Amino acid sequence: MAPGLTIGVTFYLHDKARSIFANGGHQNTVFLLDALAACPSVGRVIAINGGPGETAPEDMLYGDLEFKRFEEVADELDVYIECGAQIPKWHAEQVHANGGKVVAYKFGNAFVLDLQKVCDGRGNQDIFNGTKFDVVWTNPQHVYTNASYWAGVYRCPVAVLPHIWDETFVERVVAKRKLNFGYMPGKPAKRIAIFEPNIEVVKSCHIPMLACDLAFRQRPELIDTVWVTNTDHLRNQLTFKKFYLTLDIGTTPADKGGCSCESRYNLIEFQSQHADICVSWQWENALNYAYYELLYGQYPLVHNSEMLPVGYRYHGFDAHDGARALLMAITEHDSWAEQYNADADAFLQTVKPRYQPNIDAHENAIQEVRSQRLVA
User: Is the model's pTM score more than 0.90?
Assistant: First the structure.
């Protein structure tokens, strides 16, 4: 057995192949494993498979990931982390009986999503299954809406860890698909993409569409096409249809600056082939991997994140401010792209799992939870 602590992080392997980009949680899990593996006190990290699949798809492999079932390593775990799959109550009890610690790693806006599910009739998931956690770990963008919620329902402290990412999976898909991923300057009229998933209220296309429309009303010659992905299923929904038909870009042909409602696509592939700029919007999800992927590709990113130091920021729900930011990105970006790219690269260095302050933060979190007493 390797010296140092043995840490298990839950992972969900599907019985059918799924892309690493299908769910941000998959990436988050492997980046967490990587950061933990770099910690001085850690000897071994294990991806604990909680799904029906047995083999990780090739595009999910990252470094020297070791996959095991809980039963294979239960008595070896010093810290057991719920991340990609839910930890059953009896798993936690066994780890605690052996003197180990159990952590809930939360990387979504759980309070808002749980509230929405309850209110719209989808609240039939056994989210709170009685598992006892010693601590909840989360990222900065989820503290405001979730910290009190988690501390109350799980009856344990909440600790904040850095949001981590690296370009491994972007480079892999670019190489595999032979994509020309990266911003190309020089076009007077820009192609704009909107990638919000439109599944929950925290990430929708409405404000980006309004911002694009307000910009189009002022300078129609600057906008080539507005691609609104993840909206094909909404195209004939009355409320959404009436919304986009109130917009100039909704009644203008896509090849003359209007919008086109599209299906779900891999961001990297779509941006490579169809867009120059991305306009985004979020509600209490101020850091996400889509931002990092676009910045890595050096694309002008129009966003409303108060935590992102790079890009063309607009305020909150203010579509008029979004139009201002978009027009600035279209008309001014090419003249200072070199500085923008340098700033983006400097920022992305700080989110890498192996960035030393991030390793230190995870090491400190491990030491903290190891010293805690479980709150009954």
Answer: yes
